[in-house]
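Can't attach files on this board, so I'm pasting raw text. These are the components:
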Amino acid sequence: MTPTIGVFDSGFGGLTVLRALIERMPQARYAFLGDTARLPYGSKSRRTIARFAAESAQFLVRDQGAEFLVIACNTASALALDAIQDAVSVPVLGVIEPGAAAAHAASRTGDVLVIATDATVHSHAYTAACRSLGLRAFEKACPLLVPLVEEGWIDPSTATGNVTAEVIRIYLAELTAEAAAEDLNPDVLLLGCTHYPLLRPLLEAAVPAGVRVIDSAQAAAQAAVQIIDGRLSPASAVAAPATEISCFATDSVDKFERLGSRFLGRPVGQVQLVDLGG
Amino acid sequence: MTPTIGVFDSGFGGLTVLRALIERMPQARYAFLGDTARLPYGSKSRRTIARFAAESAQFLVRDQGAEFLVIACNTASALALDAIQDAVSVPVLGVIEPGAAAAHAASRTGDVLVIATDATVHSHAYTAACRSLGLRAFEKACPLLVPLVEEGWIDPSTATGNVTAEVIRIYLAELTAEAAAEDLNPDVLLLGCTHYPLLRPLLEAAVPAGVRVIDSAQAAAQAAVQIIDGRLSPASAVAAPATEISCFATDSVDKFERLGSRFLGRPVGQVQLVDLGG
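---
Top answer:
C-alpha cells for the assembled complex are below.
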C-alpha cells in the first residue's frame, strides 16, 4: 500500500523537507503545496496564518487524499500547528519539534545555536521547544540567507558563493560572540529555515571547531518516516514503485518551477496552480 | 497655505521619496502610508494591486486630506497608476515617468541601464517609459539589494558594507556585460527601487567611468514639487513653518519605526496602525 503524504509550506523552501522524505521513503505518493500567493507568512498575524495554513492543509487532505501531513514551514509550525491539527483528521508533524529533538540528541553541552528567518526567531518557537528538552538555545535571525539561496549564490568555488561565505562568516561571528557573552558553550548549530540546507557545505566550513550542523528539514523527515511506517527501510525501497510527486502553488508558478528543482534535487515538473481564495 | 501631500508605498522604502520631497518642500504637511500588511505587491496580480493601491490612495485623500498624491512604489506606479487616478480626484504622480525623464535629461548616448526589483523588471515599465522618450533601456533585477539595505549593510567602511560593495560589483559587471552584448553604450544608471538611494555612495563608486547615477526617488520629488507649486524655492522655505509628517502602516509598525528613520534621514516618530481590510 503506497501512502499519500502531504507536505505544506508558505513558499517552496519546504521542498528540502520533501527531498529528505523521498530519500528516506521513496515508495510513496507526495503532494506538495506552496501557498505562494499569500507569502510571506512571517509578517502576518497568528490568526491569519492559522486560517491560511488550515485551508492549505484541507486542500492536501480533502482534495489530494493525504493521509499524513508534514508542515515544512517554520512560521506555520510555530504559530499554526494546533489550528492545522484541528482542521484535519490525519496526523500532522511540524519541523520545529523534530529539529529541537535532533539538536538534543547531538548536543553534549546542552547549548544550541539556532539560525532562522526574522519571523521564526521572533516567534521564539525553537527556544521554547529546546527548553522543554532541557536545552539552552540562542537564536539569531539571518535575513540575507534566504535571498542569497534564491539567487543561487551557493557554490563555494565562485565569486557569488564567496559573497555568501562572507555573509555566513559575519553572521556566525556575531552569533558566537553574542552566545559567549551569555555564557553559553554551544556545540550544535540548528538550521531553523527550510532554505538553509542548500547552504550546508558553506555553513559546515564556517562553524567553529566542535560545533555540529543539524538540519530541521532532515530531522522532520526522519521523524515523519518513523511515525508513518517504522517497517519501511532503504532495503525495501529498492524494489518499490517509483516516487510520485505532485506540486501545487497558489501563485508564482514560474519562480517555483525555476528554483524548485534546486531545493528538491530533481525536476519539480509542472506545478499546478490552485486557488484557495484571498 | 500649507499643502497636504500624500505619499504611498507598499512598504517603507518610499520614505526615500518623502525625504527628497521634504528637502525640496519643507513647508508642507505630509501623510505617508505603507501598506505593509499586504506587501509584497510584486508577486500579486495587476487587479489585486490596483485594488490595494486604490484603497490606500483613498485613505490618504479622504481620511488625511491629501491634495496631491505621490506613488512612491515602483510596482504600484507600473501596474496601478490608472486605477489610482480613477479612485481619487487629486493629481497623482508615480515614480517611473519622472525617473525615465531624468535619465533622458542626463543621457547623451540615449542608452540607459536600470536596476530594480524582480517585480519591477518583469513589468518592463521602465523600458516602456524610456522607449517613449527615445531611450534604449537595459534592465536587471538585483534581488539582494533590498535585503542588504534592510539589514543596514550600507557603510563602505565596514566588513558588512564591503559585502554589499562586492554584491554591487557582481551585479554591475553582469549588467554592463549583458548591455554591451546588445550593443548598448550606456551613460546612465537609473535606480528603479526606492531602497536604492541608500546605496548611492556604493553605487557611484562601482559604476564604470562616464556613467551617471540617476535616482527615481529624487526625480519624482522634483517633478512633484514642480507640479505642486512652481513658486516655492529653498530660499522661501527658510522662514516657513516646520515640516509636519504623519506616518501610517497597515502592519509591522515595529519594523517601520526601527528601519524607517534610516530611509527618511530623520526620526519617523510614532507610526499609526490603520486597517484597510484584507
